[in-house]
Amino acid sequence: MLELRGVTYRYPSEDFDTLQNLSFSVKEGEFVSIIGVSGCGKSTIFRLINRLLSPGAGEILAGGHPVERQKQYCGYMPQRDLLFPWRTVGENLRLPLEIRGGLSRSEMRAQVEGMLAEVGLPGCAGKYPGELSGGMRQRAAFGRTALTGSKLLLLDEPFSALDFLTRVSMQEWLLGQWQRHRQTVLFITHDVEEAIFLSGRILVVDSTPIRRLTEVPVPLPYPRERTMLSRPEIAALRERLLDSLRKQVKEG
Ligand SMILES: Nc1ncnc2c1ncn2[C@@H]1O[C@H](COP(=O)(O)OP(=O)(O)OP(=O)(O)O)[C@@H](O)[C@H]1O
């Protein structure tokens, strides 16, 4: 579904590489998280995949083809929800459909209403983002990302700004969505427990510049229950991951 081959990137204003000869791949229908300390370059990986940035060397393939020659191969949800405050929730969700083009107003309305029901916000089309709670805004932003129609979703710390209880319920909600639709999800988080609860595999950034991602499979079946997190092997995995992040903070 997604493959990075020997990707190198350096910000024009910097004299060091953020990514150096990085390769990894994600299979169709996988839920994969990337964890790493703040500033290590996780979001840069997303900006390269979604072509906000271009690699200095190497290539990025989606569905086996270079991304430069493709449209709408991924949906991107940035850290903050970035809903346009002057557009209603319905108008925000309509945006990817307007960009894609080719749909009548009534077709767009039907798709937006269907998605709002899907993300648990029926009847919210006419509200403005400022009238929604943080969790509702994130669900609306997720709906907008899903309406890109892309099978590959890049979610960059989508729940980091939410309070603990909302975050936990949003994690469960996201897993439900993923289990129903089986999009391929690449998810960035600082939160080791969140990565374990959601992912089939975790990719750990343990070097700067990022030269490789250490792959850690999560030994839990789907559907997941939060109680699974208290299994001894999962507690040990959490400690191992926290340790490798702590080491990176010290080295950084
Ligand atoms: N536009 C830019 N120009 C120069 N350097 C940048 C730019 N954007 C990011 N950087 C630097 O590149 C590095 C990686 O940034 P990036 O946003 O990818 O990190 P991150 O791992 O996603 O961080 P966080 O978890 O805090 O969001 C950081 O050192 C950052 O300062």
UniProtKB/TrEMBL annotation:
UniProt-listed PROSITE patterns? ABC_TRANSPORTER_1, ABC_TRANSPORTER_2
Q: Does the keyword DNA-binding apply?
A: no
Q: Where is the ABC transporter domain?
A: 2-232
- GO molecular function (one): ATP binding
Family annotation (SMART domains): AAA
Q: Name one Pfam family in it.
A: ABC_tran
Q: Which InterPro entries match?
A: AAA+_ATPase, ABC_transporter-like_ATP-bd, ABC_transporter-like_CS, ABC_transporter_ATP-bind, P-loop_NTPase
Keywords of the record, alphabetical order, are: ATP-binding, Nucleotide-binding, Transport
Superkingdom of origin: Bacteria
Q: What is this protein called?
A: ABC transporter ATP-binding protein
The upper taxonomy is: Bacteria, Bacillati, Bacillota, Clostridia, Eubacteriales
